[in-house]
Design brief:
Helix content: 40-55%
Oligomer: single chain
Strand order of the largest sheet: 10-9-8-7-12-11
Shape: elongated
Distance between the termini: 9 Å
Largest sheet: 6 strands, mixed
Structural class: alpha+beta
Number of helices: 11
Length: 433
């Protein structure tokens, strides 16, 4: 129960930050465009608290699942508040367009700022609990100086991962000599036995118990001990093998999570795992420290991460729609409020930098969602404006209101459908909290 309440609190904090930024974009541009803003609200439903300052009422409502900026004459329907020339639909076309798009832009800018902070913050090394280095008595902040006679650089996650991967591949699972520098500055020479980790691409067949994807430590192969050798050879060289596994970093009985038959396993290396495939590698459980980037470089990389994330997300959405056997609300599908609460709580526990990165991802996702040309979302409103611009005539307000209502209804159905899949994750979250 404590874990669930913590997840709920994290969800509210994340949504509050992201929605306030989004609506603030609409609010500021509307004000600059001379449009009267009657209400700035966080949440939907009945009003919990409000305060009027100037011509705008600022309110908090009961359902913390979004927010809105209510502008005079927003719908153009009879009976709406009339601000005369300051009505939304009496503003110039380009002012209305900028007002609608401002929320999306604000989310992307907010994400860029948060990503920049993440890049600028120095990070100590991470040795996840339950993995070989941590089991050998080392801790976060300890640094791998050398592995298998190969120098391991600090300051670059990719370079360090490549060096360690080269060393573990050579080890073929036998004890690996490592030189460690502890956080106290002591140099320690020891041997660490790598574990064989199976990486599962998402969108596995429905029959697979590893449908979720992720990383699993292999505890047994065909009912016996894990052999030594190259990962792809240990796992059948393409022929089916049965493996017992547990989630990487998890504590408990080895092999207790799943026993599953797999085939066509490739060496994982340090490249992304493609959906539907299995990869494996010998690992010792280590993420190198980062010194933190100088501010100009952090800003460049932070804002550069936004279009990269947008591109990746759009590709994932297309793959989800076109070929995901698990469905939109399956383990590899979309996440709603419950999913955000679960992952957000996990990231908050991992530290404030991880949490900021998570908020940046959510802010980018909200921006992407609002680009979609779905009525009720900003993208749908902008589409109606484009149609108006081409026709040089606005659609009848009543018809536009019907289209928007249908769009809202479809979004609510989708949210309910996705939440059904999210609820299945709650027991796992409570178990681990």
């Amino acid at each position: 129960m404590i874990g669930f309440l913590f997840g709920l609190l994290v969800f509210i904090v994340v949504i509050f930050a992201v929605i306030i930024v989004h609506e603030l974009g609409h609010f500021v541009v509307a004000k600059l465009s001379g449009i009267r803003v009657d209400e700035f609200s966080f949440g939907f439903g009945w009003r919990i608290a409000s305060r009027k300052k100037g011509e705008t009422e600022y309110s908090i409502r009961a359902i913390p699942a979004g927010g809105y900026v209510r502008m005079a004459g927003m719908l153009g329907l009879e009976g709406e508040a009339d601000a005369g020339p300051r009505n939304f639909y009496r503003a110039a076309w380009w002012k209305r367009a900028l007002t609608i798009l401002a929320g999306i832009v604000s989310n992307f800018i907010f994400a860029g700022v948060l990503f920049a902070i993440v890049f600028a913050v120095p990070m100590s090394s991470v040795l996840p609990a339950g993995e070989p280095l941590a089991n050998a008595g080392f801790h976060n902040g300890d640094v791998v100086v050398e592995a298998g006679g190969i120098a391991v650089p600090s300051g670059s996650l990719l370079a360090a991962a490549a060096a360690i991967h080269k060393a573990t591949i050579r080890s073929e699972g036998y004890p690996l000599p490592v030189v460690m520098r502890t956080a106290a500055g002591t140099t320690v020479r020891t041997h660490v036995t790598p574990e064989l980790v199976l990486y599962v691409g998402v969108t596995q067949p429905k029959s697979s118990p590893l449908l979720n994807g992720g990383a699993y430590v292999i505890d047994a192969v065909n009912g016996g001990p894990v052999p030594k050798g190259k990962p792809e050879e240990v796992l059948g060289s393409g022929a089916p093998v049965t493996v017992a596994v547990h989630a990487e970093g998890a504590t408990g009985t080895p092999g207790a999570d799943h026993t599953v038959t797999i085939s066509k396993v490739k060496d994982a290396g340090n490249t992304p795992i493609v959906s539907g495939e299995y990869r494996a590698a010998w690992r010792i459980g280590y993420e190198a420290p980062l010194p933190g980037e100088a501010l100009p470089l952090a800003v460049r990389d932070g804002f550069g991460a936004v279009p990269q994330y947008i591109s990746t997300t759009m590709g994932q959405l297309w793959h989800l729609i076109s070929s995901n056997p698990g469905g939109l609300n399956g383990p590899n599908g979309l996440s709603g409020p419950v999913g955000i609460a679960i992952v957000g709580a996990q990231q908050a526990k991992a530290g404030w930098v991880s949490f900021l990165e998570f908020v940046a991802v959510i802010s980018t996702s909200v921006g992407i969602m609002n680009v979609l040309p779905v009525p009720f979302l900003d993208g749908g409103k902008f589409l109606l404006l484009l149609i108006e611009g081409v026709r040089r005539k606005r659609m009848r307000p009543e018809r536009e209101a019907i289209i928007t209502t249908v769009g809202l209804a479809l979004l609510l159905i989708l949210a309910f459908y996705v939440t059904i899949g999210d609820i299945e994750k709650i027991p796992l979250f409570l178990k681990g909290s």
